[in-house]
Amino acid sequence: MSTGHDKAVTPKIDLPVGAEPNLSNKERMAIPRQEMPQQSAEARIHNFLEVPLGFDENTARIEALRCIKCKKPTCIDGCPVGINIPGFLTKIAEGDFAGGARILKEDNILPAVCGRVCPQEEQCEKVCTVGKKNAPVAIGRLERFLADWEREHDMVQPLIPGAPTGKKVAIVGGGPAGLTAAADLVRMGHKVVLYEALHKPGGVLVYGIPEFRLPKKIVEFEVRQLEKAGVELHNSVVIGQTFTMTELQEKFDAVFVATGAGLPYFMNLVGENLNGVYSANEYLTRVNLMKAYDSHADTPVAKSKNVAVVGGGNVAMDGARTAKRLGADNVYLVYRRTRKEMPARVEEVEHAEEEGIKFFFLHNPIRYEGDADGRVCKAICERMELGEPDASGRRRPVPTGEFVELEVDTVVVAIGNGPNPLIPRTTDGLATKKWGNIKAEKKSGRTSIRGVWAGGDIVLGAATVILAMGAGRVAAKSIDEYLKTGDWPEVTLDG
């Protein structure tokens, strides 16, 4: 198996275990950013194994040495959960990986997840001081290294529950926000019961992100740590149907709603109801959570030869790259702007290109046509050109009146998701925004109902894993204060 890119040439550095080489900032800045080995494109399009293969110990230490130990580490400010980044980088450079993992997990219970899927290039690495003149320190890759090292060496520190308070908290939704809040609340000594609508906890981590970006065994491992600490998990429980929010409030001292953004958006085009037209949410859930790549699965995905994926974000990349691995001959990524405006991570776009995804920039579908059996067979797309910037700051796509036809047997619509509507629809007095997101106080996560908090994508809209985790931490702290004092000051709802 190919490991992809060759590693950067690095000055020879003596790396004694238990000590960090005494390097000047000039010497640290001279060390190039270390490349992570990965599967070759030719190999990986035929499997669902993880693409990046991770740093070895020596490479991780060399990369950590690139940190210049700023007096005011802006990388911490760039992290939504405030991880002590210089602290764990120092431990890596010393070769004390167990110590680094302990520092890392003081603020992040899902480092193996965040190290893989969080957009560090827009957060901690974006404000890295080293990055002002050179490539920033590979903080995300080092975060992943520590988490993997700890797990693979059976050195994981257990989550220690606090002294029992006698208070009970219900968490609705087992995604990043819910899992983070559960961990913090258990540490605070509260009894936590988590309700997940699907048959496995993890939320978007298990239904949305493909195996080749985030192996499910990693999510399962992290969930087991919560269970060992005493978090009580109930899967296949749909709050709003199985139980109402009112019933939860009667049984628990506090409720945290973290149900995510699982409502797929469509474009309301002619032909969207044809067989073979999926939302990205359905397509990825079938493959990731329900193993549709197995012909014996209960929810299969039809074998496809020509697939069009509509959208330009990470979910669109996931859909396109998944279709390629399922054996499609041609996968077209249809996006109405240019590459420059794509919201997807640069790394994901590059991986898609390497894997043979065909990008149709400045195109937008206007209708779909079907065959005699009611299955999609054509995507009619209009050529676009860029006009003036819109509210997002990106140039607005303008129709040109020119059209192109794509022969397809599958379409995956990946233009975004809305908030899960079930709890807002079934809960009287719960304030929501225009598009159905729950209104919550930014500084606390408190909602319009006393004793009810909300956070993550159900409040923010479809965002990042680490932002959802940050919301879970904020809510947990506020819930703990409420359970100790009973105080419920006037709520200032955002949005």
How is this structure best summarized?
By secondary structure, this protein is of the alpha/beta class.
Q: Specify the CATH homologous superfamily of the largest domain.
A: FAD/NAD(P)-binding domain
Mean pLDDT: 93
Coarse structural class: alpha/beta
Radius of gyration: 23 Å
Count of the separate structural domains = 3
Helix content: 25-40%
The CATH class designation of the largest domain is: Alpha Beta
Number of strands: 15
Description:
This protein is α/β, with parallel strands linked by helices. The chain has three domains: 25-152, Alpha-helical ferredoxin (Fumarate Reductase Iron-sulfur Protein, Chain B, domain 2, Orthogonal Bundle); 168-262 and 418-485, FAD/NAD(P)-binding domain; 266-415, 3-Layer(bba) Sandwich (FAD/NAD(P)-binding domain). It has helices at 25-29, 41-44, 57-64, 74-77, 85-94, 97-105, 111-117, 139-152, 176-187, 204-207, 216-228, 245-251, 280-288, 314-325, 346-354, 422-426, 457-460, 465-485, and strands at residues 168-172, 191-195, 232-234, 254-257, 263-264, 277-279, 306-310, 330-334, 358-360, 363-370, 376-389, 395-407, 410-413, 417-418, 452-454.
